[in-house]
Structure formats: structure tokens, C-alpha cells
Amino acid sequence: DLRGKSLALPPKPAIVHHLALRELEIKGLKPAKDVLLKPQKSHSNAMHMAIRGQTDGAAIGQPTWRRYDAADKASLVKIGESEAIPGFALMVHPRVPEMERAALRRALFGFSGTDTGRNYFNKTGLQGVREVTQADKERLDFYLAKINAALNPGR
């Protein structure tokens, strides 16, 4: 239980920041009231706050966790995970001609079948490339609104 504890977070524009807040709420905790939140400038900084004992825990993305291989990482214990979301979405403006969009789509969907692609997905823990579904868009809209509010306070 993180009640009364401190939690290092990536910066507010990072989706992991908002995934962590949502997960705290799901667990019945009120972020910033039940848990002391300490936003950092990066995912790595958040992780190092916990490693150094400056916070009781940290919320970080899987790529940050997998990329960091120092021995002091062993001092951390995973206590939970947020909901799974697409790792990232690639979009183009509608004015990009359909032929170019098709070429980009082929290159993107072919990436995971290349040695470079397999290496990338192995190192990051991301799980390949797939079409974005309407359900993905709807789930991400919740977090995009939170990120937009963080980037544009008072709007």
C-alpha cells in the first residue's frame, strides 16, 4: 500500500504519469492526498529517486525499466502495473497523399520483421506494430485530455 508514502513520477506530459495517477485512484487512493507525488524531469530520474531512497516508489515506463541494467536496479520490487496501452501511435496529416501514406504504412508494418525491428522490440519490451483500433483511440483520449491539461494549465 502506498498510502502515506512518496511516489516519483515522470513529468506531467508523460502518459505514464497519468496512468500511475489513474491506477492509484483505482486502488482507492487519492493522488497528492494519500500519496506524496514527486514529478521528475524524466522516467529515468523517477526511477533513480526510488533507487536512491529519496522516494518510496516510482512509476516508470517499461522501456526505461528494460533499458537500465545497473546492479542497483535489483533494489526495486515491482508492486503493480497499469492498464496496457499502445506504446505509441504514428499518425500523418490527411494532406499526405495516399501513396505516401501507403508506403509509410508498409515500412512501419514491415519494421518488426527486420533484424533492427526485432532488436528494438526486444530491448524496449514493446510488442510490435499493429493497426490502431477505435477502442485504442477512445482509451487514449482519456489520457490525452490529461496530458493536454498538463501542457496547457488554466485552459
Structure report:
With 155 residues, the protein is mostly helical. The protein has helices spanning 15-26, 43-51, 62-67, 98-111, 115-124, 134-151; strands spanning 6-9, 36-39, 57-58. A three-stranded parallel sheet has the order 2-1-3, with helices on both faces.
Shape: globular
Widest β-sheet, arrangement of strands: 2-1-3
Distance between the termini: 34 Å
**Strand residues, percent:** 5-15%
Annotation field: number of helices: 6
What is the chain-wise order of helices and strands?
EHEHEHHHH
Main pleated-sheet profile = 3 strands, parallel
The helix content is 40-55%
| Average pLDDT taken over every residue | 89
| Rg calc | 18 Å
Beta-strand segment tally: 3
Structural classification: mainly alpha
Low-pLDDT stretches are none
Give the topology:
Layout: E1 6-9, H1 15-26, E2 36-39, H2 43-51, E3 57-58, H3 62-67, H4 98-111, H5 115-124, H6 134-151
Parallel strand pairs: 1-2, 1-3
